[in-house]
Amino acid sequence: MKADILAVGAHPDDIEIGMGGTIAKAAANGKTVVMAHLTKAELSSNGSVEERLKESAAAAKVLGAEKPLSYSFSDRGLLNERKEAIAALVKLIREVKPVHIFAPYHEDRHPDHGHCGEIVKEAFFSAGIKKYGEGESFKPEALYYYQINGLIKPDFAIDISAFMNQKYEALACFASQFQSGKNKVETPLTNGYLDDLRARDRLLGRETGVSSAEGFVSERLLLYPFPEKENKE
């Protein structure tokens, strides 16, 4: 299977938070989206591994993406398994040959998100090296970073106005994470997190002149596609 987009996260729900609307939009336009979680979030304050797997599968279905790939690298221990995680992602990149790769941006309150972004950057580079690892080398066109927590100044934004409901329907699948209740541990996710996230999407939309948007940082300088006049000489 070949993918137009490969989105990688440290935990189930990372990708959906940062770019759920973009995934829904891509899928609606006939693009194949593969999502991969490096850990099963076994150290999460709420929800079991089994719950998270079911939730992420349900969310992917809502967004129109392929069923998520779930690796078993250690939650809060990605740096200890850095070499193995890079090798696994290089193998995946060479298999699905994505046009674009997305990973978490490093400015985030959760260290795992930044570590995941570093690992993806390494894999993005190494996948294009002919003598690295096994399989035929492949270099995607671009690596972009999505934001999970906080508010960064993005390099570009994607209009998700028509896909906001779909994004938050997918996030609602993660009841173990975003719903408070009896026998639940209070975390930043259970305390109005989705309301704040929706406000961020609307703020970014306002900045770009649309209703809602998701912001991204580019690994390299973007070239504006300025229309050029044909040279008739």
From TrEMBL:
Q: Which GO terms describe its biological process?
A: bacillithiol biosynthetic process
The protein in question is named Bacillithiol biosynthesis deacetylase BshB1
Q: Which residues form the signal peptide?
A: none
What InterPro entries would the database entry show? Answer: Bacillithiol_biosynth_BshB1, GlcNAc_PI_deacetylase-related, LmbE-like_dom_sf
Cofactor(s) this protein requires: Zn(2+)
Which organism is this entry from? Alkalicoccus daliensis
| GO molecular function (one) | hydrolase activity, acting on carbon-nitrogen (but not peptide) bonds, in linear amides
